[in-house]
Amino acid sequence: MQFSRRDALRCVLGGGLLAAGAGALPLRADTLPAKAKSVIQIWMWGGPSHVDTFDPKPAAGYDYCGPFDKPIPTKTDGALINELMPLMAQQSDKYSIIRSMTHGIFAHETASYAVQTGRQPGERLVYPCAGAVVSLFKGENAPGLIPPYIVLTQPQGRFSENGFLGERYRPFATGGDPAQARFAVEGVVAQGITDKRQHDRRDLLHQLNSLGNAMQDDSLIQSLDQAEQQAYELILGDAGKVFDLAQEKDEVRDRYGRNTFGQSCLAARRLVERGVPYITINYQGWDTHRQNFQVMRQKLPQMDRGLATLLQDLSERGLLDSTIVWWSGEFGRTPKVMWEAPWNGGRNHWGDCFCALVAGGGFKGGRVVGASDARGEKVRDRPVYPVDLLGSIYRQLGIDPDGKIPNSLGLDVKVTSGGAGRLKELL
């Protein structure tokens, strides 16, 4: 579900969903000292090939690595990555690779749910994803009218992100395209309507509002007037300017790459600077059943530039220490290439073994956790489950993974399922 422009303004006028990420449910004191303030989740929608990104297998032969048989070294000892990611190779001291992610699920919807909630599908409850959980516990720190949980740009659409927490904790999907001349954020920027026209509309509204003008001392009229001011502050004031990438220098925008992903990374950095606790970049196009290698040659350079620049930019601005960057999809791809028609060099879904990447927010960089087997088919060493990764992310944010999630249903629910491991190697 994506909020429309009308829905977004209704939220402001009706009590401030956009202005508050917490408060609907009673918070409790199960918090820990926090090392991180924000998360940027790079969601690789569709599932990226682990052997074509951060776990190359050139020795497995052409039927497994295809034309990508020359992986390149990184700053991290012994860590080779795909040859089309030279910028990420230079930034490897800032991130760590988990090469032993596993959950054994091969369907998009259920795998997405497992990775983003840390729960097995099919349980009695529909649990909230990490963004909704962070919004619940950290939403009160969100700046002014800016939502605490933002998705750039399209909603993921695989499952109900807010789960049993309710609509208040659903992410605000921006819509639009940050690579366009004007980033038309749904509910903030209207296509084809200039700021001057917005001001003129507001002036006309005030001229026609005879009832409000006659009853300016009425408490209800005053509250409606305040809500209107908040709505227009989001549209025309400083709050909405966080999405105005034209405020950035051309050389900065060029460094990120003049494409949707690169400019989404830049927008995410700006949102972190404004104190937004959780941002997801829904990076689509990784479900490469057909012509996998043609797609990789197009998308990997874009990902390399955008993600490497994001890590470098956060570091140079002193933000990486307090910002977790989490790169992952719902699973990997079949290590053995499907050369036959109609796949023509495609890769299918693979949930037995895949990769994730974490950086910043107190996580150590320059490390590799776990290992896959010689062909990337199974976990050989140190299996890491989604709940292990999410529990570690929560811990860095100061959210107790073993604490309770308050909820309006009165259920006894913990932040993560019992027995969750932690990425002690990286904490």
Question: Helix and strand layout, with pairings?
Answer:
Blueprint lengths: L4 H9 L24 E7 L17 H4 L6 E2 L6 E2 L4 H5 L4 E7 L6 H10 L12 H9 L10 E4 L19 E2 L21 H14 L1 H5 L4 H18 L13 H7 L3 H14 L4 E6 L8 H25 L6 E7 L2 E2 L15 E2 L3 E6 L8 E2 L1 E2 L6 E3 L4 H12 L30
Parallel strand pairs: 1-7, 1-8, 4-12, 5-6, 5-7
Antiparallel strand pairs: 2-3, 4-11, 8-11, 9-10, 13-14
Helix pairs in contact: 10-11
Radius of gyration: 22 Å
Number of strands: 14
Query: What percentage of residues falls in helices of 4 or more residues?
Result: 25-40%
CATH class: Alpha Beta
Neighbour order of strands in the largest sheet: 6-5-7-1-8-11-4-12
Structural class: alpha/beta
Strand content: 5-15%
How many strands, which pairing sense, and closed or not: the largest β-sheet?
8 strands, mixed
The SSE string, one letter per element, is: HEHEEHEHHEEHHHHHEHEEEEEEEH
Shape: globular
CATH topology (fold) name: Alkaline Phosphatase, subunit A
Domain module count: 1
Overview of this protein structure:
- By secondary structure, this protein is α/β, with parallel strands linked by helices.
- It has a single domain, classed as Alkaline Phosphatase, subunit A (3-Layer(aba) Sandwich), CATH 3.40.720.
- Helix content is 31%, strand content 13%.
- The chain is built from twelve helices and 14 strands.
- The chain has helices at 5-13, 62-65, 86-90, 108-117, 130-138, 195-208, 210-214, 219-236, 250-256, 260-273, 292-316, 386-397; strands at residues 38-44, 72-73, 80-81, 95-101, 149-152, 172-173, 278-283, 323-329, 332-333, 349-350, 354-359, 368-369, 371-372, 379-381.
- The strands form four sheets. It has an eight-stranded mixed sheet with strand order 6-5-7-1-8-11-4-12, sandwiched between helices. A two-stranded antiparallel sheet has the order 2-3.
- It is globular, with a radius of gyration of 22 Å.
- The model is unreliable at 1-23 (pLDDT under 50).
